[in-house]
Amino acid sequence: METVRTEIATLGRDWRQVGPGNALLRRLTWAIVGATSMLVVAACGSAVVNGQAATENRSIVGTWVVNVTPNAPVPAFQSIIVFTRDGAVIEGTSKPFAAPVADTSEGLGVWSNAGDSVHMTFEKYLFDSQGHYAGRTIVTETDTLSNHGTEYTGTASTTIYGANGNTTATFTSSSQAQRMAS
After folding, report:
1. Do 71 and 160 belong together in one domain?
2. Are residues 27 and 69 in the same domain?
């Protein structure tokens, strides 16, 4: 920004020298374009730094590597969660299956802002070893982004339903996530 100010000051002092095809006119044009671009970026509340969008607005939008620690006799596991701009959630997990579940769909759901936090809900379909529907899992979670927007912590409640719709298990968990970098 200081460079732009210096350029504009120099150009203002030398304005009478501007003529057609003059290098000074080109410098003035680029100084104005540069200053305008910086103002637009500042007004939008974000910038691009090292090829990545800065997270001044602390948006949850993006891809996250999430370490999940259940408050149950289940080992910790990792998930990848994608939060889209239009409020959709896509989740994939490394969580091992427990019989009779042999497979599961990816988690699909929605998210919304909830004050300083983000609230999300997603569902997964469960299948037995023959590929038959065995029920579903619903996860509701509240996450809070760090001040710099590259991490979040959260708490979740998980309910597992059998094929008949009855609750077969519930548990809570905590999560710590890092924004995935390219």
Report:
1. yes
2. no
Cβ 52 vs Cβ 181: under 8 Å: yes
pLDDT in tens, 2-56: 544 444 445 444 444 545 554 444 443 343 434 333 333 333 333 333 344 443 4
Q: Which amino acid is at 115?
A: G
State the total domains in the chain.
Answer: 2
Element (H, E) at 34: helix 23-44
Q: Can you give the pLDDT at residue 115?
A: 79
**What per-residue confidence (pLDDT) applies to 106?**
94
Residue 138 pLDDT greater than 90, yes or no: yes
Burial of 116 (0-12, 13-18, 19+ CB in 10 A): exposed
**Helix and strand totals (H; E) in the chain:** 2, 11
Which residue spans within 37-116 are E strands per DSSP? 48-49, 52-53, 62-70, 77-83, 88-93, 103-104, 107-114
Same domain, 13 and 90: no
Around 114, how many Cα atoms within 13 Å sit in the side-chain half-sphere? 13
d(CA 153, CA 178): 9
